């Protein structure tokens, strides 16, 4: 809206390490690349400690970096000033605000700092807090407070909105209505960079998912194609002589046909199932955790029949 | 500072209809309104910060009443009159140093400061808001204190303009030094929970050793010397020079009001706190990277 640069965020080789000479250093971010186009919703997924929040806080201008290039709305967050801050919106992870102001007062006071803010009352309504508009912020429940955070993040009419694990602690209904809110923000042209460890959230909201592990991007793509076709190969599972067997195949019908033939007419194939790896299976394989058989089977690089333990 | 950022603001936002960023001074007023509302709605701050010197004056003046007049060099004043300057000084430090140090430490700890940093609010406006709060509370508090002293306890208020001039500069210097000390000291408490104890304790100790409760002549010399390093002793002494007869100067450690030294020490604290405060101020918690 403000200018026609198609890139909202461009990160190349970002590095950040914590620690000191005595205790040693730990790379929180180790050469991370990230692009967000304008109007896009990008979800950064990753386990705790993967470097998501550090990365986002560098993009927001809260932290310095040790290396790499960062451009957010055409500026380096390290040197960006008030005008740049007026164009971004930030919803941070922890919020324990014990304010004695009411919800509406807080939103209004924040709106005052922006050149072209949204109407405070409308924003309060948009996050579903009309009933609480005149309640003190300190008395809000966890989910309500999170909504207030979002209201404060969007009242300045940001071009780019950062949402750091926005729905942690929400009940399912609150998450659903929060997702609707995010979708409506995208429809109004806001670019959104979201970190989350909820896969359904990423699948629901994101145009693109970026998986981060140990401070680097290990995969990216749309929620449907993440991990490549290989990782999505269906798995046929059955029991043979009391032992569970699985086979990964692009032609599951043929495999099932073969099993039916082998079992003989009218006989059941015990424990038969055909599963396509879910986003969660793909994700767990990507971050190197495989608590389920299906996820292990979905690990790329092994296309033949395996015997499950 | 604000003018340059505003200029870059208008050049980057080239789209038609893009509006200018609100001014630093205006946002300082907005913040002042926020601060004031937070303050009056927080009952603890009203009771322990705002009303404290008034309550203490009332208690001490009632308990000691007319039975304990204070006499120096043949001149006698009521206990309430003797006690008033110390309470004025204490009130100044409570409304500035204590209020600011605790509120900033708590706001840093609960993430409000970090969140403010994420908005285009200029840091100057944030501090203007704090100054606005301190000034408003200290003015109202001092006015109430003087009114209670004069109307309830018959303390004669000075009628010489000289004394009110002294009152004005001691008040302004004390308020400014106290506020800056509060900002600088806000980085000391390591969490919001510990803030009250960490902030209040040194002030409480200083109240006893700076001649607020007892006459300094009753204190050992090393204690007076130590307290003389801090602003409270000088604000209290300056206020005694306003509200007590000139003969009472003899009861001071130096047997004089020492206006020059008072101004020098308070100005020194003002400068040191400003330098330390601007260098150590953090928007984030200690443990946050």
Give the C-alpha Rg of chain A. 23 Å
User: Which CATH first-tier class of the domain at 1-87 and 159-166 and 190-226 in chain A would you pick?
Assistant: Alpha Beta
Beta-strand residue percentage of chain B: under 5%
Describe the main β-sheet of chain A briefly: 6 strands, mixed
Number of strands of chain A: 13
Strand content of chain A: 25-35%
Give me the CATH superfamily of the domain at 1-87 and 159-166 and 190-226 in chain A. P-loop containing nucleotide triphosphate hydrolases
Chain pair sharing the greatest interface:
A-B, 41 and 41 residues
Largest sheet of chain B: 2 strands, antiparallel
Distance between the termini of chain A: 56 Å
- Secondary-structure class of chain A: alpha/beta
| Overall pLDDT of chain A | 86
User: How much is the radius of gyration of chain B in Å?
Assistant: 21 Å
What percent of the residues of chain B sit in helical stretches (DSSP H or I)?
A: 55-70%
Average residue pLDDT of chain B:
87
The name of the CATH architecture of the domain at 1-87 and 159-166 and 190-226 in chain A is: 3-Layer(aba) Sandwich
Element order of chain B: H for helix, E for strand: HHHHEEHHHHHHHH
* CATH fold label of the domain at 1-87 and 159-166 and 190-226 in chain A: Rossmann fold
Q: Termini separation of chain B (Å)?
A: 27 Å
Pfam family, one (chain B): ABC2_membrane
GO cellular component, one term (chain B): ATP-binding cassette (ABC) transporter complex
Family (chain B): Belongs to the ABC-2 integral membrane protein family.
Subcellular location (chain B): Cell membrane; Membrane
């Amino acid at each position: 809206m403000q200018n026609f640069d198609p890139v909202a965020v461009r990160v190349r080789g970002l590095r950040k390490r914590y620690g000191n000479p005595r205790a040693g250093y730990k790379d929180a971010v180790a050469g991370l690349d990230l692009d967000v186009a304008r109007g896009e919703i990008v979800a950064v997924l990753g386990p705790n400690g993967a470097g998501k929040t550090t990365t986002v806080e560098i993009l927001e201008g809260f932290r310095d970096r040790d290396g790499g290039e960062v451009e957010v709305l055409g500026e380096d967050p390290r040197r960006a000033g008030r005008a740049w801050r007026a164009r971004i919106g930030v919803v941070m992870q922890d919020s324990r605000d014990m304010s004695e102001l009411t919800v509406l007062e807080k939103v209004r006071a924040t709106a005052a700092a922006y050149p072209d803010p949204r109407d405070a009352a409308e924003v309060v309504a948009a996050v579903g807090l009309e009933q609480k508009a005149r309640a003190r912020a300190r008395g809000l429940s966890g989910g309500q407070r999170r909504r207030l955070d979002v209201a404060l993040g969007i009242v300045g009419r940001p071009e780019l909105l950062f949402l750091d694990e926005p729905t942690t602690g929400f009940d399912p209904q609150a998450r659903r209505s929060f997702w609707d809110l995010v979708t409506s923000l995208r429809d109004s042209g806001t670019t959104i960079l979201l970190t989350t460890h909820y896969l359904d959230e990423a699948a629901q909201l994101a145009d693109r998912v970026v998986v981060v592990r140990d401070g680097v991007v290990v995969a990216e793509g749309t929620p449907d194609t993440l991990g490549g076709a290989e990782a999505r190969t269906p798995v046929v599972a059955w029991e043979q002589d009391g032992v569970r067997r699985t086979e990964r195949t692009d032609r599951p019908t043929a495999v099932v046909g073969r099993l039916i033939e082998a079992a003989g007419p009218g006989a059941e194939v015990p424990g038969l199932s055909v599963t396509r790896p879910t986003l969660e299976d793909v994700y767990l394989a990507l971050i190197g955790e495989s608590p389920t058989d299906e996820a292990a089977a979905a690990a790329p690089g092994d296309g033949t029949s395996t015997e499950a333990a | 500072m604000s003018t340059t950022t505003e200029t870059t603001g208008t050049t980057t936002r080239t789209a038609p209809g893009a509006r200018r960023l609100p001014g630093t001074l205006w946002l300082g007023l907005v913040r002042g309104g926020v601060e004031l509302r937070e303050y009056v709605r927080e009952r603890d701050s009203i009771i322990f910060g705002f009303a404290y010197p008034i309550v203490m004056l009332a208690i001490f003046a009632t308990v000691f009443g007319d039975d304990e007049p204070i006499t120096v060099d043949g001149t006698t004043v009521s206990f309430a009159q003797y006690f008033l300057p110390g309470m004025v000084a204490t009130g100044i430090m409570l409304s500035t140093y204590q209020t600011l140090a605790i509120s900033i430490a708590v706001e840093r700890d609960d993430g409000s400061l970090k969140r403010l940093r994420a908005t285009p609010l200029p840091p100057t406006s944030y501090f203007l808001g704090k100054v606005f709060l301190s000034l408003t509370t200290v003015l109202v508090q001092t006015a109430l204190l003087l009114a209670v002293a004069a109307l309830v306890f018959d303390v004669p208020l000075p009628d010489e303009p000289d004394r009110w001039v002294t009152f004005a500069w001691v008040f302004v210097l004390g308020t400014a030094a106290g506020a800056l000390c509060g900002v600088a000291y806000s980085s000391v408490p390591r969490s919001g929970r510990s803030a009250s104890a960490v902030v209040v304790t040194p002030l409480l100790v200083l109240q006893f050793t700076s001649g607020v409760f007892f006459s300094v002549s009753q204190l050992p010399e090393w204690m007076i010397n130590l307290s003389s390093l801090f602003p409270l002793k000088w604000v209290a002494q300056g206020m005694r020079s306003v509200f007590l007869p000139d003969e009472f100067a003899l009861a001071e450690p130096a047997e004089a009001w020492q206006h020059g030294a008072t101004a020098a020490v308070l100005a020194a604290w003002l400068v040191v706190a400003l330098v330390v405060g601007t260098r150590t101020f953090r928007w984030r918690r200690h443990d946050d990277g």
